[in-house]
Specification:
405 residues; 2 domains; nine-stranded mixed β-sheet; three-stranded antiparallel β-sheet; 17 helices; binds iron/sulfur cluster
Length: 405
C-alpha cells in the first residue's frame, strides 16, 4: 500500500514585508520564473527518489491535499500555477476529491485571476484579510485596503468558490474587545466557510518588534488576550463556527482544513520550495520493522541558493532531524491539545509503549477537576482541553512535557 501525504508548495514572494512577519519571503520578483522551474525540478527529483520507484513500475504516492502557501502565492502568474499543478499531478496520485488550497492576498488579484484559479482546479481559498479596520491594517503594514479585501472575497464567491477561509489577526497594539468584535462581525457578513483568528506575535527581527522594544506602543496584557481568545470562541460558536483548533474555526466539520488537520495529526507531508518543511511520519510498517524514527527536514530559506542548488542537480535540503520517541510523544500531545479532537491516546500509547492514563493520572485528574480538560475512554480514547484549558495551553503543555522529557 503506498503512502498518503499532503503536499505543500511554498511561494516565497511578497510585494512588501508586513511589519509583524518573520516568515521567509523576498520582494525580488525577478526570481519568479527560475523559482518555478526549480520547484518543478525539486518535485520531480524528490518524488522519483521517494516513491517506491526505487522499485520501478510502482505507482507514485497518493495525495489528498495540495496547498499553495507563502509568501504570496497569488503573485504567481496563472500560467505558472498551471505548470506547477501539472507537475504535481504527474508526480502524485492526487485524489479526485482532493482539497486544493491557494493563499490569496487582497491587492494582488482580480476577478479574472480568481476565475483562472478556479478553472485550474483550485477549490479552496485562504484570503489574507487580517482586519477590516483601516488603522489596524496600517499598523500591520499590509499592502491592501479594506475595499480590496471586500472585493477579493466577493469576487471569489462570484466566480464560484464555496470553500473560502479568511485570516484575521487580534491582539494588536491597544486592541480592545470592542475593536475586535467589529472585525469579527464584518467577517461574519460574508458567511465564509472558515476563519483563522491568529493572536499577533512579534517575530524576531520584525519592524513591529523593534518598535515595541523602543516603547512606541503597548500590547494587550496576557489577561486581556486570554479574554479576547475566549470571547472569540464563544462569539463565533454562537454564529455557527466550530472552534476545532486553537486558531481555527469552521462552519461544520466538513469545512475544516483537511490539509492543516493532517499536520495536527502528525501525518506525512512533502513541502517544496525555499524554507518548506517536510515530514516523513514513517508508516506502521516502518516502525514495526524497527526502522528509523520519523524524520523532519527543511529546505534552505533563500530563493537564490534554492535555485542554484537545483541548477547544479542537488536537492536544497538544509537540515533534517530524526524525532526521538520523547519528541514524538511530546509533539503529539502538544498538537492534540490544540485541537477539539484532543490527544489520540491510542496512537500515543502505540508509539510510546506506556500506559498514558497511568503516567499522567494525577495531571489528567487535576485538569478534569479544574474544568480544564475532558478524558474520554472507550475505543477511541482521547483527552481534550475545554475552552478554559485552551486559554492556558502553554502551561498545560509544560506540565505534560515535565512527565515526558
Ligand atoms: S504577505 Fe504574508 S508572508 Fe508576506 S510579508 Fe505579509 S504576512 Fe508575511
Amino acid at each position: 500500500m503506498s503512502e498518503n501525504v499532503c503536499v505543500y508548495i511554498h511561494v516565497p514572494f511578497c510585494i512588501k514585508k508586513c511589519s509583524y512577519c518573520d516568515f521567509y519571503s523576498t520582494d525580488t520578483l525577478s526570481f519568479l520564473p527560475a523559482y518555478v522551474k526549480s520547484l518543478q525540478q525539486e518535485i520531480g527529483i524528490r518524488t522519483r527518489l521517494s516513491s517506491p520507484s526505487a522499485q520501478p513500475f510502482l505507482p507514485p504516492k497518493k495525495s489528498r491535499t495540495l496547498y499553495f502557501g507563502g509568501g504570496t502565492p497569488s503573485l504567481l502568474p496563472l500560467e505558472a500555477v498551471k505548470k506547477i499543478l501539472e507537475t504535481l499531478f504527474t508526480s502524485y496520485r492526487v485524489a479526485k476529491d482532493a482539497e486544493i488550497t491557494f493563499e490569496v492576498n487582497p491587492g494582488t488579484v482580480d476577478r479574472l485571476y480568481l476565475e483562472g484559479l478556479r478553472n485550474l482546479g483550485i477549490n479552496r481559498l485562504s484570503i489574507g484579510v487580517q482586519s477590516f479596520d483601516a488603522a489596524k491594517i496600517k499598523v500591520l503594514g499590509r499592502i491592501h485596503t479594506i475595499g480590496q479585501s471586500v472585493d477579493t472575497i466577493e469576487a471569489a464567491k462570484a466566480v464560484g468558490f464555496d470553500n473560502i477561509g479568511c485570516d484575521l489577526i487580534y491582539g494588536t497594539p491597544d486592541e480592545t474587545w470592542e475593536n475586535w468584535i467589529q472585525d469579527l462581525k464584518r467577517a461574519l457578513e460574508f458567511r465564509v466557510s472558515h476563519l483563522s483568528c491568529y493572536m499577533l506575535t512579534l517575530g524576531p527581527g520584525t519592524f513591529l518588534k523593534a518598535r515595541h522594544e523602543q516603547g512606541c506602543f503597548s500590547l494587550p496584557d496576557p489577561e486581556t488576550l486570554s479574554d479576547l481568545f475566549m470571547a472569540t470562541s464563544v462569539f463565533l460558536g454562537q454564529n455557527g463556527y466550530e472552534h476545532y483548533e486553537i486558531s481555527n474555526f469552521a462552519r461544520g466539520r466538513k469545512n475544516r482544513s483537511c490539509h492543516n488537520s493532517n499536520y495536527w495529526q502528525m501525518r506525512s507531508y512533502d513541502g517544496f520550495g525555499p524554507s518548506a518543511h517536510s515530514f516523513d511520519a514513517m508508516t506502521d510498517k516502518g516502525q514495526d520493522a524497527g526502522l528509523a524514527f520519523p524524520v523532519r527536514s527543511w529546505n534552505t530559506a533563500n530563493v537564490s541558493a534554492y535555485i542554484e542548488t537545483l541548477v547544479s542537480g542537488r536537492l536544497p535540503v538544509r537540515e533534517s532531524e530524526a524525532l526521538s520517541l520523547q519528541q514524538q510523544v511530546l509533539e503529539r500531545v502538544m498538537l492534540g491539545l490544540r485541537t477539539s479532537d484532543g490527544i489520540d491516546i491510542t496512537a500515543v500509547e502505540k508509539i510510546w509503549g506506556q500506559d498514558f492514563s497511568r503516567v499522567f493520572a494525577p495531571l489528567l485528574s487535576r485538569l478534569e477537576t479544574q474544568g480544564l480538560g475532558v478524558f474520554e475512554t472507550g475505543p477511541g480514547k482521547q483527552f481534550h482541553l475545554t475552552l478554559s484549558g485552551r486559554a492556558r495551553l502553554d502551561n498545560i503543555v509544560e506540565a505534560f512535557a515535565d512527565k515526558i522529557l
